[in-house]
Amino acid sequence: MRMLEESDSEHEDEPYVPSDDENYVPQVDVTEEDSDIEQEMVIEHENEYESDESVEDDSVPQSAGDIWTAKDETQWCSNPLPNAQTKSRNVLRQRGGPAAISNLYTAKELFKSIMTPEMCDIILRETNRKAKRVCDAYNNELVQRFPDSSKRPPQKTFKQFTETELHAFLGILIAAGVHRANKENLEEMWNVAALPLIRAAMSRDRFKMILRFIRFDNENTRAERVQTDKAAPIRDIWTMLNSNLERAYKPYHCITVDEQLFPFRGHTKFTQYIPSKPAKYGIKIFWACDSSNAYPLQGQLYTGKPTDGPRQVNIGERTVLDLVSSYKGSGRNVTTDNFFTTMELAKVLNSWNMTLVGTVRKNKRFLPNNMQPAKERPVYSTNFAYNHDATVCSYVPKKNKSVVLLSSMHMTGEVEETLAAKPEIIKYYNITKGGVDVMDKMLGEYTVKRRTSRWTLAFFYNMIDVSGLASYIIYREHNPSFRAKDQRRKFLKDLANQLCMIAIEDRSTNKMIMRNHFLRGAVEMVLGRCIVVASQPAAGPKIPHGSRGPSPVVGSCYVCRDLRRKQRKTRKSCVVCVKPICDEHSVAKPTCITCKENQ
């Protein structure tokens, strides 16, 4: 952070500052004729601005040049105030960077430190709860529609999702985002000519089931929680994600606060319309990011006006304080745009030993009149105004145009020696303003989002993107030599492989799955080794094979015929009635359902 310089000018008439000492007597001019005051009782103040604690009020010394009073009675002066030392709020007191414990983490371990097992447990528990409820409802309806069990279609049996499957699900989404396949149809993603990792990690039907049933909160208690929190369906894992992001990384000297509009046109109770954004419609999130590398530090989901409360005021100011409250006393700077910047925000951050740099809307009541654009102001000229809390500058980039910025970090009006003559405040703002915009651009480069009508699932896609980006930034900070041209793409591909590897290893040991020639080829390509499938003996009594080839076809399943389904040719027959039976309508032994009930 830039160190502020001492003022070169010495003021002969020092301003009067009240002292806490009861015995303090201000210095006065004493003559021989009209003074009874002893000269020894005079206490002199050599410099009133030697420390931040020496001045507590907002008064401006009359010797500091022209004095301007804003509409809200804020006083400004035309000359910089003299300072003997650096303001305490400009002293950086914390080291920035990732946590030291993550130095030796792999890509998967870094991702799991952001998308933690506790978050996965919530997703698995609620997803299994939803799937079981749907499966039980289907089976109950089947029993009511077909009282006769002999004519009843088979009931559904639900196999619970596991953590390995969830990691494979996330890995498939990340792999599809890296290869720009997130907008492809699922049938194409599992095509023989598609990415082998996707076919090797999970079946298409299982992936569809997870997409259908995935949930992030308890549906039984949701109605009550939504009354006070519109984002209740995803609030728990969103809060945990923010906590993990903050714990894994500390920002450097500057934090950028801005908004992200996640594109979504489905139904929500807080959809935002921002015409200046490319997507225009979506879910708005306020982010605090590290300005140096766009690491997402904290996010706040904007849900609009509370359902049971008054209209919110000072949203920008309150949002900034909420997002950076974890860094009180750190000496960091906060860069904002004109939606957030206020004089009150600068004062609060000053009390937190933090600074503020941001653009200001020209209708703010704390601005002096000379900050407004005027015809007589030449191009590339700058007007400054100073007080003890902040500095305001008004720069003219074009005729009859002005850009107003406020800074509690810069206490002098330094201007670069170029044709444009930009102030130092504007240069610093231009360097640090793009943290959130860069993050949003990087998220959209390899996004995992797919088309969906559920806002919770769309928001979860954004959480996966944020977790992947945060993992990549931490890995890059720990490995400065990792500077490939497409380094983030390589990191995400490696992350997808590591997330899917356990599921692929498990599938490679399943002999029934590996009997599929195309699937076995995909698994072998990912694992890099050949898989030998041993012959599996058939269960139950064997039907004699013919002299050549497999067992002969004994007919079509009689249960399928009774249900008026498509006829299925089969090589199995019931051991009791010797009727042909297919795999779906057989039990452990090749016995038909009718003979099984008569036993």
Total number of helices: 18
Question: What characterizes the major β-sheet?
Answer: 9 strands, mixed
First-to-last CA distance: 86 Å
Query: Helix content range of the residues, please?
Result: 25-40%
Which runs of at least 5 residues are low in confidence (pLDDT < 50)? 1-59, 536-548
Radius of gyration: 35 Å
Shape: elongated
In what range is the share of β-strand residues?
Answer: 5-15%
Strands, count? 15
Secondary-structure-derived class = alpha+beta
Tell me, rounded to a whole number, the average pLDDT. 83
How would you briefly describe this protein structure?
This protein has helices at 107-114, 117-145, 163-178, 186-189, 196-201, 204-213, 222-226, 235-248, 315-324, 343-351, 424-432, 435-445, 455-478, 487-508, 511-514, 517-527, 558-562, 593-598; strands spanning 67-69, 75-77, 97-98, 249-250, 254-263, 272-273, 281-290, 296-301, 333-336, 355-359, 382-386, 391-395, 403-407, 555-556, 569-570. By secondary structure, it is an alpha+beta fold.
Topology:
Elements: E1 67-69, E2 75-77, E3 97-98, H1 107-114, H2 117-145, H3 163-178, H4 186-189, H5 196-201, H6 204-213, H7 222-226, H8 235-248, E4 249-250, E5 254-263, E6 272-273, E7 281-290, E8 296-301, H9 315-324, E9 333-336, H10 343-351, E10 355-359, E11 382-386, E12 391-395, E13 403-407, H11 424-432, H12 435-445, H13 455-478, H14 487-508, H15 511-514, H16 517-527, E14 555-556, H17 558-562, E15 569-570, H18 593-598
Parallel strand pairs: 5-9, 9-10
Antiparallel strand pairs: 1-2, 3-4, 5-7, 6-7, 7-8, 10-13, 11-12, 12-13, 14-15
Helix pairs in contact: 1-13, 3-14, 8-13, 9-10, 12-13, 14-16
